[in-house]
Amino acid sequence: MRILQVSAELFPLLKTGGLADIAGALPLALMAAGQEARALLPGFPAIVAGVRDLAPVAEFTAPWGERFGLRAGHVAIAGAPPIPTYVIDAPALYDRPGNPYEDTSRQPYGDNHRRFALLGWAAAQLAQGLDPGWRPDIVHAHDWHAALAPAYLAFARRAGGPRTGSVFTVHNLAYQGVFAPWHFAELGLPAPAFHMNGLEYHGQISFMKGGLYFADQLTTVSPTYALEIQTPEQGCGLDGLLRQRSNVLSGILNAVDDQVWNPSTDAALVQGYQAPEGRHMAGKARCKSVLQRQLGLAERPDAPLFIVVSRLTEQKGLHLVLGGLDTLLAQGGQLALLGSGEGWLEEAFRQRAAAAPASVSVTIGYDETLAHQLFGAGDVTLVPSLFEPCGLTQMYGLKYGSLPLVRRVGGLADTVVDCTLEDMASGAATGFVFDRFEDADYDRALRRAFALYARAPDWRRVRGNAMRRPADWGTAAAQYIDVYQRALA
Ligand code: ADP
Ligand code: GLC
């Protein structure tokens, strides 16, 4: 199958969150499974700079009349085959400061409807033969940024265009791409598309709803989240539509790219390590002491090091970490956080670090190398999310033996097994799981982590379970291929 994967980000070129990790890993996994995968990306500066051998493919007209170019090249990744990649050449839309979605003062760009409609539009053009040398059988669109692709394809098909299967993956239902209705005329969709059975949402235009309504197949990034988004509590207003389409909705758990996240080969670590326990794990202790020194923490091998690598937003439940910090410190733990996001959270964590610099380290910003070092050094990875479609940091925590402490929600529930006596005995336990989104529940999970840490042989056993948990892309790729086949059927 020829599969075109459409997303706004792709690791290692451009990343603001887990979407990029998945967009970078899935094409490789599909190629490894014998499929022909290509990527389509907006021409953000980091993407134009990172895609090799970019050459013009074609020109096309946007729905609002402007002409743009499409170029193609490849993303080169060490130890993997290159990913053939199309880039939309539109500097007027994409060559801007700030992140892909917002300006430097964190305001969404006023023409985001055009910037991302163009992504879906270009995908649909490719499906209709824009590149004479390659036409996809499947267009796989990720998140609201690419969500108009299935809508364009559905209307092209009704107009007698070629049959291209469409798959839409929700990485986070909370970000929907909602725009004022008067922009509809710029999107190049026929009037019936702006309907309750279409992308109309409370009088507004919802890109997310367009993807959910028009795609042949829907997926999201964990089985539990696939169920949760069908409920009013977590459906973000779209649960009705998701229930209606539940026959085409599957939850496919994200995996971990072993080339990027592997403690035995990770170049960011001072010393590699691997399970089983014993001398193979000496590297982890060394990672911890070097990082403690680097961050100005007390160099104490016996102090359990709790880490956070996260966007600082409401989703991630970090006020629980703030609320539980006194307990954590009173029991002799240390906290090292790396993140950026909402101002009040950044400030609150900064203050805690200033008050106790030998036990709390806070790095505000985005730092890929430090992220790896934190997983390498950490004993516990904190992910107490309010909601979590999949979550990757708990999976990195598992793989690096930095045991996840998570709330039982979304993909966190699907990937971490609590240290109950029975799951310790059976060898299934891999971390600490709490249920209610409350300080008291979080605190109890923290205390369980300290209690286990005090029992070194048990700790090592659970850490071995965690590090051995399979998280390979082969399984996920096979499930996606199955979904593509259904989209074509
Ligand atoms: P989300 O996509 O909701 O942010 P995930 O857990 O799926 O959450 O993915 C987050 C990704 O972003 C992980 O690869 C994580 O390591 C990375 N990340 C988050 N914040 C930072 C940061 N401040 N510096 C470096 N990497 C970060
Ligand atoms: C989203 C979700 C996160 C998920 C990631 C990759 O950003 O918030 O839970 O892991 O996408 O699918």
How would you explain this protein's 3D organization?
Helix 5 (148-158) crosses helix 6 (207-214) and helix 9 crosses helix 13. Strand 16 (380-383), helix 14 and strand 17 (403-407) form a beta-alpha-beta unit. The chain has two domains: 2-255 and 473-488, Rossmann fold (3-Layer(aba) Sandwich), CATH 3.40.50.2000; 278-468, Rossmann fold (3-Layer(aba) Sandwich), CATH 3.40.50. 38% of the residues lie in helices and 20% in strands. The protein is α/β, with parallel strands linked by helices. The strands form three sheets. A nine-stranded mixed β-sheet has the order 3-4-5-2-1-6-7-11-12, sandwiched between helices. A six-stranded parallel β-sheet has the order 15-14-13-16-17-18, with helices on both faces. It has a three-stranded antiparallel β-sheet with strand order 8-10-9. The chain is globular. Residues 17-19, 21, 309-311, 338-340, 366-368, 371, 390-393 line the site of adenosine-5'-diphosphate. Residues 17-19, 22, 171-172, 221, 254, 388-392, 411 line the site of alpha-D-glucopyranose.
Beta-strand residue fraction:
15-25%
Low-confidence stretches: none
CATH topology of the largest domain: Rossmann fold
In total, the number of strands is 18
Number of helices: 19
In round numbers, the mean pLDDT is 97
- Order of strands across the biggest sheet? 3-4-5-2-1-6-7-11-12
Task: Provide the domain count.
Answer: 2
Largest sheet: 9 strands, mixed
Share of helix among residues? 25-40%
- Compute the gyration radius: what is it? 23 Å
Our measurement of the CA-to-CA distance between the termini, rounded to an integer number of angstroms, reads 13 Å
Looking at this structure, what is the CATH superfamily of the largest domain?
Glycogen Phosphorylase B
Give the CATH level 1 class of the largest domain: Alpha Beta
Q: Structural class, from secondary structure content?
A: alpha/beta
Tell me which ligands are bound: adenosine-5'-diphosphate, alpha-D-glucopyranose
What would you call the shape? Answer: globular
CATH architecture of the largest domain: 3-Layer(aba) Sandwich
